[in-house]
C-alpha cells in the first residue's frame, strides 16, 4: 500500500518547501493596498464544511485508489478580522492540512473557503494573485522552508520581485526594513540560513511572509521546533507584528498553553473534526467536550502545588486511523462519557450560546 | 530514603572536534538519594544527556574524554569499572530510557525476545519464567492484551506504546535507578499523561530512584522531588521542587519560568523571553556563562564564574546577585492565574 503524496517526515518537508515556492511563483504582480478597517467582529474568512481526503493507491503499474486518508472531514468556522484563532490538537488530527487547504495549497475535496466574501476556488487572474499575497504561511521548520543556497536578503527579496512590489534600491531598503521589523540585524543580509540559529531562522520566515503585506497568516507550529527560552521571543514578535500591521492569524500548535496564550478564540481538533470552539478563557473555565476536558487535564502546569492536587482524565488507547475513523462520534472509542447513540450517530456541530460551538451528544 | 544512591562529583565531559574542544559538562556535582526523583532541566545543548551518558559510561571515546570526576554508585566509582563490570550494572542496577524508543529497540526482534534476553542474562531466569515475567511487565505499563502483543515487533506498536515497552524493559531487572532522557518529548500530551501516570505509580510501588531529563518545567513540576537546572554544562540552581518554583534564585530559572505560557493563565500578559542565545561551548565566555543574556549582570559577573552558593534550605544557586533576583523576580513572574477546573 502506498500513500499518494508524502506521509513520511522527509517527504513532507520537501513538500513544504516546494509549496512555498509554488505560492511565490504563482503570485502575481499587484501589490495589495492595505485595508485598514478592522473591528473584531468582521468576518475575514469563512470555512464551510471543508473536507480534504488524500487518496491511498495500490499497485505499481496501474495505481488504483483503495481508500482515503480523511485528514479533514467536514469542518466549519469563521476567522474574524484582526483576531488570532488557535487550532489545537494532537499530531495527525489534521491541523496542517486545514491550514494548507485554506490557503489553497491543497484543493479541497469538498466545502468552501470564503475570504472577504469571495469563494477562493472561484478566483481567477488578478483576484487570485491578490489573494495569494493577502494570505501567507509561516512554517514549523525554519530549516526546511528556507532555500539553503540563497542569502537571507535574496530569500526575503524573492516575493518582492515575484509580486513586482519593489526593485533595485527600493527593494534593498525594504529587505533591510523587514529584517529590522523582525528583530534581525540588517547587516546579516548576505548570510546564508545555516549561519543562523533556529529562532533567527524563524524570524527570517516571518520576514518573508510579511514582505508582501499580507492580511492573514497561517502560522503552522511556528515555535514547536524552538527551545523554550527562544519560543517566547517568537511569540512576542508575532504579537507585536499583529498589532503593528493589523494581521489576522490562524495559529496552529499542539501545545494548548501556547495556543491559549496567543489566541482570542480556540478550536480543538480531533481526528479530522473540530469538536469545540470558544474564546480562550471559556475553553479553560468551561470546557464542554469530553476530549477538550481530557486534553486540558493532560497538559502539565509548571506549579508543583497545583500538580499535586490535579485530577487527570487518562484517555485509554491511541487515536484511531483517519483511514477508517469510528462510525458515529469519532471520539466514542476513547470517550469516558459515551452513550449508545454515540456509536451510531455523529453529533452535530452547534452553538450552545455565546458562540460556544461544540459537537457532542451529551453536552 | 535518606541513603545516598548516586554521588556525582566534579564531573567534566569534553569532545575534541575539528572546531576545538566542546566543553559539554563543566564540573557537575550532585547526590541522589534512594527512591528520590530528580528532574534535570535545561534547554537543548545544556549538557543534560551528556552528563547522564557519562554516568552510564556511554560516551564514545574519542571524541569524548572525561578530564575529571567521580560517579559513586553504591560505593563504587563507575568511572573506574572495567567495560565488563559496567555491562553488569547497565540494564540491571541502572536502566536508561531514551527519547526515541526506535533507536534502542531492535526492529528485527520481537518484544518478547528483547525483554526476556535481559531477564535471562542478568537474572538467570529460565525461558518460561522470563516470558511470564515479560507479560507481567507489559501489564504493569498498561499494554492491553499483553500475552498476545508479546510476539509483535516494535513497528507494530504506536509511539506511546513503544515508549511504555521501553520503560517495561528498563524495569525488567528491578533497577535501583532509572534514567529517563526526555522520554515523553516526542509524544502527544495525552500519551505523555498516560506515561507520567504509570511512572508515578511505579515509583511508589517499586521505590526506585529516577533521574528525569526534560526541557518541560510543567512535566517536572508534577514528577520530581528535586530539580537541577542546567545551563551550558553547569548546574546553575538546585532545590526541592516546591522551593524551586516558589523561590527561584537564578536569573536563568526565572527566565525559563517567565518565558512559558501557563495553561491556567488568565489575562494575556506579555511573556518575558530570555534574550540572546546560549554561549558557544568551544569558546566559553569568562565569568558567569549566563552573563551576556542576564538582566541582573554586574561587573563581577564578567570576571568571575560563580560557584553554587547556599541560598536557602537545601537550595543552591550559582549567581552572584541572587539577592537582587529575590527582590525583583516577582515583577517578572507575575501572572493572573485562573481557578483550577475540576476534571
Ligand atoms: N500529503 C499527504 N498525503 C497523504 N496523507 C497526508 C498528507 N498530509 C497529511 N496526511 C495525513 O493526514 C492526516 C492529518 O495530517 P496533518 O494535517 O499533517 O496533521 P497535524 O498537522 O494535525 O499533525 C495524517 O494522518 C497524515 O498522515
Ligand atoms: N559526540 C559528540 N561530539 C561533539 N559534541 C557533542 C557530542 N555529543 C554531544 N555534544 C555536544 O555537547 C553539548 C551538550 O549536549 P547534550 O548533553 O546532548 O545536551 P542536552 O541533552 O542538554 O540537549 C552540545 O553542545 C552537543 O553538541
Ligand atoms: S458524542 Fe458521545 S462519544 Fe462523542 S464526545 Fe460526546 S459523549 Fe463522547
Ligand atoms: S552571576 Fe551575574 S550574570 Fe550570572 S546569573 Fe548571576 S547576575 Fe546573571
Ligand atoms: Mg502539522
Ligand atoms: Mg538531550
Write up what this structure looks like.
The complex is a heterodimer of chains A (363) and B (343). Chain A has helices at residues 9-26, 95-102, 125-134, 152-162, 168-181, 198-210, 228-245, 256-262, 280-285, 290-298, 304-309, and strands at residues 2-3, 43-58, 64-80, 84-88, 110-115, 118-119, 135-138, 216-220, 248-253, 265-270, 273-279, 350-351, 357-358. Chain A is of the alpha/beta class. In chain A, strands 7-8-9-4-10-11-13-12 form an 8-stranded mixed beta sheet, with helices on both faces. In chain A, helix 4 packs parallel to helix 6, helix 5 crosses helix 6 (198-210) and helix 6 (198-210) packs parallel to helix 7. Chain B has 343 residues and is α/β, with parallel strands linked by helices. Chain B has an 8-stranded mixed beta sheet, with helices on both faces. In chain B, strands 2-1-4-5 form a 4-stranded antiparallel beta sheet. In chain B, helix 4 crosses helix 5 (127-140), helix 5 crosses helix 7 (159-171) and helix 11 (251-259) packs parallel to helix 13 (322-333). The model of chain B has no long low-confidence stretch (mean pLDDT 92). The structure holds adenosine-5'-diphosphate (2 copies), iron/sulfur cluster (2 copies) and magnesium ion (2 copies). One magnesium ion (MG) binds next to helix 1 of chain B. Residues 251, 288, 290-291, 294, 296-297, 301, 306, 319-321 of chain B line the site of one iron/sulfur cluster (SF4).
Mean pLDDT of chain B: 92
* N-C termini distance of chain B: 33 Å
Number of helices of chain A: 11
Task: Give me the count of strands of chain A.
Answer: 13
Summarize the amount of helix of chain A as a percent range. Answer: 25-40%
CATH topology of the largest domain in chain B, which one?
Answer: Rossmann fold
Q: What is Rg of chain B?
A: 21 Å
- Give helix and strand order of chain B, one letter per element, not per position: EEEHEEHEHHHHHEHEHEEHHHEEH
Any idea what the shape of chain A is? globular
Number of strands of chain B: 12
CATH homologous group name of the domain at 9-59 and 66-144 and 215-327 in chain A: P-loop containing nucleotide triphosphate hydrolases
CATH hierarchy: architecture of the domain at 9-59 and 66-144 and 215-327 in chain A: 3-Layer(aba) Sandwich
Q: What is the count of structural domains of chain B?
A: 2
**What would CATH call the architecture of the largest domain in chain B?**
3-Layer(aba) Sandwich
Strand percentage of chain A lies at 15-25%
Amino acid at each position: 500500500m502506498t500513500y499518494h503524496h508524502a506521509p513520511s517526515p522527509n517527504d513532507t518537508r520537501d513538500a513544504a518547501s516546494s509549496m512555498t515556492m509554488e505560492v511565490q511563483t504563482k503570485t502575481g504582480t499587484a501589490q495589495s493596498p492595505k485595508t485598514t478597517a478592522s473591528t473584531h467582529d468582521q468576518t475575514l474568512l469563512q470555512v464551510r464544511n471543508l473536507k480534504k481526503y488524500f487518496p491511498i493507491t495500490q499497485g505499481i503499474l496501474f495505481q488504483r485508489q483503495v481508500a482515503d486518508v480523511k485528514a479533514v472531514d467536514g469542518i466549519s468556522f469563521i476567522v474574524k478580522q484582526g483576531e488570532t484563532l488557535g487550532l489545537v490538537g494532537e499530531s495527525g488530527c489534521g491541523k496542517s492540512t486545514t491550514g494548507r487547504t485554506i490557503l489553497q495549497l491543497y484543493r479541497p475535496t469538498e466545502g468552501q473557503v470564503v475570504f472577504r466574501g469571495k469563494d477562493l476556488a472561484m478566483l481567477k487572474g488578478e483576484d487570485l494573485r491578490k489573494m495569494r499575497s493577502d494570505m501567507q504561511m509561516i512554517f514549523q521548520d525554519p530549516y526546511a522552508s528556507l532555500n539553503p543556497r540563497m542569502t537571507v536578503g535574496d530569500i526575503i527579496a524573492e516575493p518582492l520581485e515575484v509580486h513586482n512590489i519593489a526593485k533595485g534600491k527600493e527593494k534593498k531598503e525594504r529587505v533591510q526594513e523587514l529584517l529590522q521589523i523582525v528583530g534581525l540585524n540588517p547587516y546579516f543580509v548576505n548570510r546564508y540560513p545555516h549561519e543562523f540559529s533556529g529562532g533567527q531562522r524563524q524570524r527570517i520566515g516571518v520576514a518573508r511572509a510579511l514582505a508582501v503585506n499580507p492580511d492573514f497568516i497561517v502560522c503552522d507550529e511556528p515555535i514547536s521546533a524552538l527551545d523554550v527560552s527562544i519560543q517566547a521571543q517568537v511569540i512576542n514578535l508575532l504579537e507585536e507584528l499583529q498589532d503593528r500591521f493589523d494581521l489576522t492569524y490562524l495559529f496552529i500548535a499542539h501545545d494548548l498553553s501556547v495556543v491559549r496564550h496567543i489566541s482570542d478564540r480556540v478550536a480543538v481538533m480531533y481526528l479530522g473534526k473540530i469538536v469545540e470552539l470558544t474564546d480562550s478563557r471559556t475553553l479553560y473555565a468551561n470546557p464542554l467536550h469530553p476530549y477538550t476536558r481530557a486534553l486540558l487535564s493532560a497538559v502539565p502546569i509548571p506549579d508543583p502545588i497545583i500538580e499535586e492536587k490535579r485530577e487527570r482524565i487518562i484517555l485509554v488507547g491511541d487515536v484511531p486511523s483517519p483511514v477508517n475513523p469510528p462510525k458515529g462520534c469519532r471520539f466514542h472509542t476513547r470517550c469516558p462519557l459515551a452513550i449508545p447513540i454515540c456509536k451510531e450517530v455523529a453529533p452535530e456541530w452547534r452553538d450552545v450560546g455565546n458562540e460556544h460551538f461544540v459537537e457532542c451528544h451529551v453536552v | 530514603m535518606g541513603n545516598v544512591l548516586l554521588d556525582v562529583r566534579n564531573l567534566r565531559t569534553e569532545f575534541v572536534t575539528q572546531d576545538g574542544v566542546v566543553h559539554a559538562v563543566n564540573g557537575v556535582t550532585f547526590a541522589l538519594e534512594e527512591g528520590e526523583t530528580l528532574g534535570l532541566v535545561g534547554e537543548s545543548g545544556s549538557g543534560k544527556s551528556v552528563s547522564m551518558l557519562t554516568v552510564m559510561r556511554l560516551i564514545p571515546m574519542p571524541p569524548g574524554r572525561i578530564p575529571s570526576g567521580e560517579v559513586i554508585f553504591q560505593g563504587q566509582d563507575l568511572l573506574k569499572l572495567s567495560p565488563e563490570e559496567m555491562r553488569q550494572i547497565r540494564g540491571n542496577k541502572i536502566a536508561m530510557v531514551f527519547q526515541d524508543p526506535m533507536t534502542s529497540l531492535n526492529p528485527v526482534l520481537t518484544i518478547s525476545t528483547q525483554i526476556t534476553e535481559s531477564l535471562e542474562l542478568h537474572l538467570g531466569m529460565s525461558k518460561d519464567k522470563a516470558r511470564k515475567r515479560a507479560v507481567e511487565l507489559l501489564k504493569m505499563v498498561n499494554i492491553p492484551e499483553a500475552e498476545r502483543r508479546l510476539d509483535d515487533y516494535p513497528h507494530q506498536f504506536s509511539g506511546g506504546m513503544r515508549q511504555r515497552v521501553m520503560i517495561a524493559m528498563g524495569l525488567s531487572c528491578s533497577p535501583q535507578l532509572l534514567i529517563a532522557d526526555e522520554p515523553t518529548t516526542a509524544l502527544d500530551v495525552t500519551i505523555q499523561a498516560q506515561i507520567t501516570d504509570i511512572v508515578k505509580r511505579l515509583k511508589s510501588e517499586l521505590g526506585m530512584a529516577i533521574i528525569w531529563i526534560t526541557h518541560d518545567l510543567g512535566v517536572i513540576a508534577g514528577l520530581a522531588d528535586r530539580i537541577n537546572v542546567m545551563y551550558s554544562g553547569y548546574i546553575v540552581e538546585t532545590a526541592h521542587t516546591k522551593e524551586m518554583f516558589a523561590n527561584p534564585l537564578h536569573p536563568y530559572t526565572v527566565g525559563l519560568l517567565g518565558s512559558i505560557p501557563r495553561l491556567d493563565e488568565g489575562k494575556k500578559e506579555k511573556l518575558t523571553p530570555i534574550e540572546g542565545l546560549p554561549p558557544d561551548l568551544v569558546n566559553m565566555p569568562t565569568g558567569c556563562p549566563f552573563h551576556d543574556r542576564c538582566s541582573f549582570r554586574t561587573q563581577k559577573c564578567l570576571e568571575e564564574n560563580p560557584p553554587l552558593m547556599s541560598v536557602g534550605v537545601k537550595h543552591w544557586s550559582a549567581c552572584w546577585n541572587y539577592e537582587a533576583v529575590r527582590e525583583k523576580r516577582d515583577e517578572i513572574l507575575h501572572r493572573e492565574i485562573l481557578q483550577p477546573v475540576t476534571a
